[in-house]
Amino acid sequence: MFSVGDHVVYPYHGAGKVQDIEEKEILGKKLNYFIVFFPLNNVTLMLPENKIGDSGLRSVIQESELAALRDALTANEAMPPENKSRSYSRENELLLKTGSIFDAAHVIAQLTAKEASRTNGLHIEDRKNLDRAQQFVLSELKAVPFLTDSEAVHFLERHRQHTP
């Protein structure tokens, strides 16, 4: 389980930090609640300990997973046909809601390749998904102890900028 001070990731909220663990009595039952602050959304959540497993709350990426993240960011993604763009946009939104850094990287790779192949840039929905995916990945990379903030930014920029 998690302790005060641990960096964690919660689906659609990005990386956060466990601020406190409080015992609360609700409806006659005592439960421990994790108080987690998420700077990306400027939100503090109280998550009951007995629901942590189902909530999707997880630890931040480990150093040993950086190569897999790099590969996900630089994957040569197939472009969706123009008439399928709305379904791909919805698929990207669903991927972002999983809380997986690898799913967010997949969205970045696909939309970066799509952006490079278009002369007039991305549609507004795609642009929002790309920005959100980059925010999620960056929030998590900045929360890991083995990277400084500037190294996290450099990692994302270096591996996002590829030629399809």
TrEMBL record:
Matching SMART domains: CarD_TRCF
Domain CarD-like/TRCF RNAP-interacting: 1-112
GO process annotations (BP): rRNA transcription
Listed transmembrane segments: none
Taxonomy, superkingdom: Bacteria
Name of a matching Pfam family: CarD_C
PANTHER family recorded: RNA POLYMERASE-BINDING TRANSCRIPTION FACTOR CARD, TRANSCRIPTION FACTOR YDEB-RELATED
The protein, known as: CarD family transcriptional regulator
Species in which this protein is naturally found: Salisediminibacterium halotolerans
